[in-house]
Amino acid sequence: MNGFIRPRIVAHVLAVAAVLATGCGERGKGRASRPRASKADVASVVEGNSAFAFDLYAKLKTAKGNLIFSPCSISTALAMTYAGARGDTAAEMEKTLRFALGQDALHPAMADLVDDLNARGGDEGKAAYELVVANRLWGQSGYNFLAPFLELNRTYYGAGLELVDFARATEAARKKINAWVEDQTRDKIRELLKPGVLNALTRLVLTNAIYFKGNWASEFKKERTADAPFHVTPEKTVDAPMMRQTEKFGYAETGDVQVLDMPYVGDDLSMTILLPKKADSLGDVEASLSAAQLKTWIARLREEKVAVFLPRFKVEFGLGLSETLKAMGMPLAFSNAADFSGMDGTRDLYITAVIHKAFVEVNEEGTEAAAATGVVVGLKSAPMKPLVFRADRPFVFLIRDRATGSVLFIGRVTDPTA
């Protein structure tokens, strides 16, 4: 896959995170006064974002090893970009990204969805968990962006415009954008934009950054963590630091998979783990993943006493999404035929790169996670005894917002020690 960066496992943990995709331009700063969306429109956005999440996972799952990404971060950065798309370019983006509402209704609904998340995440120390979402536009100094495009992004995404000089000081602009991302994600996402991603023809970079930190509602005791076998494949086994506890959690199972739902403090967010019953059947579970299937599994959850065995894990993952998004149905946006006239009144702009990086860590206390997305736009040229949930083989995990059903992060662990 072009632009694909092999995931790097940083230590003995895989992780999972929670955070959504639109939001404040800076920590602690809200949006300007704006129209509110209907509940039906917000529900439509949730449904579309979830469908896109699994569409994208189906493309990315072909990579080897551990995986983590934030579909909501990607959706948000591209929604900000979509605000400037017109004609067939907008139509392709709508279909691929599952934006069913069109320009007028989508942006207020995206804003309402994330306003709700940010309100519950709150400032550090005042809420059960910390959830920070930030957006910003970085534009070429002296370039004539249309006022309605800038106003829409400021109003609905809290994304103010910061002027830089891509044409004469490309490297300085790259470093400034990366520094902003690092600050918003508590230094978890570094070097979002590698050297060479920007050039003298770059005119706009749209960025979304997310940071989440939350403790388990029922924490694991560190003294109970011990190395135990993790079956990477039927033929390969590694020793991984296995956390363990017996507690009541949301639990369901079918003939092929066990489903465990573990809430964070406050019960707003949870980690949902999909554990194949056989060590070599992760592919079957991945093949069945869809928004509808997730709803079915979630609907079956019942509170049960479960003996949980879960490895600590940490993952960093980065990828370029240009080729993937083209293959998914929106090639026009990346071509000389692109129409982003809503940005500047011309048809001179097109997307040159979509970059995404994510970090997640899961340990005894809870989860810390961060993600960032950059869109670069340039000029053309049981019962009595506890049930057992032993995650000692490859599994899929996701972080979701229980209130809205939004899928915030999705990934898999094939080897927690890699």
Specify the helix fraction band: 25-40%
The structural domain count equals 2
**What is the alpha-carbon Rg in Å?**
21 Å
Q: Structural class per helix/strand content?
A: alpha+beta
Number of helices: 10
Portion of residues in beta strands equals 25-35%
Largest sheet: 9 strands, mixed
Poorly predicted sequence stretches spanning 5 or more consecutive residues = 1-30
Q: Give the CA-based shape.
A: globular
The second-level CATH architecture of the largest domain is 2-Layer Sandwich
Supply database-style keywords.
single chain, alpha+beta, Antithrombin, Chain I, domain 2, Alpha-1-antitrypsin, domain 1, 2 domains, 16 strands
Task: Describe it.
This protein has 418 residues and is an alpha+beta fold. The chain has two domains: 4-215 and 314-379, Antithrombin, subunit I, domain 2 (Antithrombin, Chain I, domain 2), CATH 3.30.497; 222-312 and 384-413, Alpha-1-antitrypsin, domain 1. It is built from ten helices and 16 strands. It has helices at residues 39-60, 71-82, 87-97, 102-121, 147-157, 170-184, 282-288, 291-299, 322-328, 341-344, and strands at residues 4-8, 67-69, 130-140, 160-164, 202-215, 226-231, 237-253, 257-263, 269-276, 302-311, 313-320, 349-362, 366-379, 387-390, 395-401, 407-413. Strands 2, 6, 7, 8, 9, 10, 14, 15 and 16 form a nine-stranded mixed sheet that branches. The protein has a seven-stranded mixed sheet with strand order 1-11-12-13-5-3-4, with helices on both faces. Strand 3, helix 5 and strand 4 (160-164) form a beta-alpha-beta unit. The chain is globular, with a radius of gyration of 21 Å. Mean pLDDT is 87; it is low at 1-30.
